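Q: I'm writing up a methods section and want to include an example of the input and output format. Could you take the sequence below and give the corresponding predicted structure tokens, formatted cleanly so I can copy it straight into the document?
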Amino acid sequence: MEFKLVKRNMENHIAFLSLARVDRLNAVNRELAVEILESFKELDELGDVRVVILKSDARVFCAGLDLKAAMTGGFGGDAQNQTGPELNGHALLECCNIIERCKKPVIAAVHGACVGAGLDLIAACDIRFCTEDATFSIREAGIGLVSDMGSIQRLPMIIGQGFTREMAYTAGFYTARDAEKMRLVNAVYPDKEALYAAAEKLARTITENPPLGVQSSKLLLNAGRYMQVEEAMLKAGEMNRKLMASDDFKEAAQAFLQKRKPVFKGN
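A: Here is the clean output for your methods example:
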């Protein structure tokens, strides 16, 4: 499909995906949700892509849900019945879920405000970096709603119940340093230039490892949140038995014996 509200480019096994609904500060409407969903579907299947960096071309990361679209039935529903599937269309929910399900690690590079739906998006990412001017908010309680795109479910596993409940109940804005203290973000950078350089540096480091090992680690980390330790360990053992038959594992072993840098192909 043709993409108008996101921009994509690939370089050295890294996909850069930019939210580009600039005139509305990336407020999430149905069209943007669909483009995020379809972009990640495609990137997930591209063998040459090993890491995705999610960022914004607007002056903030994301202003949240497009309330004007929601109130006028812009998500495919009746404006007089803004509940359930009418407000939360399939794409609106799946644009976050697809990020978590993506086989490739996703790094969120956040600058400026990251509100509501924006926080839902980055909560589904693997790793989050931000700039000093970044702010974060679960805004729904402030307008009489509840967050329903996944952040309330995912954030407790990232920042814990206490911080999640504080954010959800207050609808307040939290600074980059607050987010760092909560461990919502891995690191804070002075500006966008430093932010993007750090995100790309981390992405390059990840791409140097065997793709199947990295992707299997993500799958196990996601699944392990809902498993007992012993069950997750058995799953890891099953994965390793398969991975040891891969060309990349054989290449790693040969490179070690030959004292050279391995070249991995994702096979």
